[in-house]
Write a structure and sequence with these properties.
Bound molecules: (1S,3S,4S)-1,3,4-triphospho-MYO-inositol
Structural class: alpha+beta
Order of helices and strands: EEEEHEEEEH
Helix content: 10-25%
Number of helices: 2
Radius of gyration: 15 Å
Protein name: Rho GTPase-activating protein 12-like
Strand content: 35-45%
Organism: Scomber scombrus
Number of strands: 8
Distance between the termini: 10 Å
Length: 128
């Protein structure tokens, strides 16, 4: 219903540093390339910007191009199975466009927070 009011910001807006790698692009398997990225969740979009020397500052986002952005609408999120990565606390994100990402942090609290936020986002935008 386009006339229904929406809150000004989504409860799932979030940012922080994560390790990320694509594993599939346009439905094709790609080679893993884990990088530390500044991740921003806004609306249904999840954006990654290469950190400036691993920094966590917003200035880095302004200065560097976003590495890539994925649209979470119609996507899915789950805990990655052991065969996807040997790392701990790994989330697998699949998009409707055929991109699969692994996101990870050594900090389990950080990862649990992201897991919840990503699920929120997907359910909030499920009918768009
Ligand atoms: O799933 P894989 O192929 O075992 O992933 C590992 C590789 O990408 C490896 O790099 P090489 O492409 O040089 O083999 C990475 O260094 C590892 O981190 C990858 O595995 P993990 O289990 O860390 O996701």
């Amino acid at each position: 219903n386009p006339s229904s009011p929406k809150p000004p910001t989504s409860p799932s807006e979030k940012c922080g540093v994560l390790n990320v790698t694509k594993i599939t692009e346009h439905g094709k398997k790609v080679r893993k390339n884990w990088t530390s990225s500044w991740a921003v969740l806004q609306g249904s979009m999840l954006l990654f910007a290469k950190g400036q020397g691993g920094g966590t500052s917003w200035f880095g986002v302004g200065q560097s191009k976003p590495e890539f952005t994925v649209d979470l609408r119609g996507g899915s999120v789950e805990w990655a199975s052991k065969d996807k990565s040997s790392k701990k606390h790994v989330i697998e994100v699949k998009t409707r466009q055929g991109t699969e990402l692994l996101i990870q942090s050594e900090n389990d609290v950080v990862v649990n927070d992201w897991y919840r936020a990503l699920l929120d986002t997907i359910s909030t935008h499920a009918w768009e």
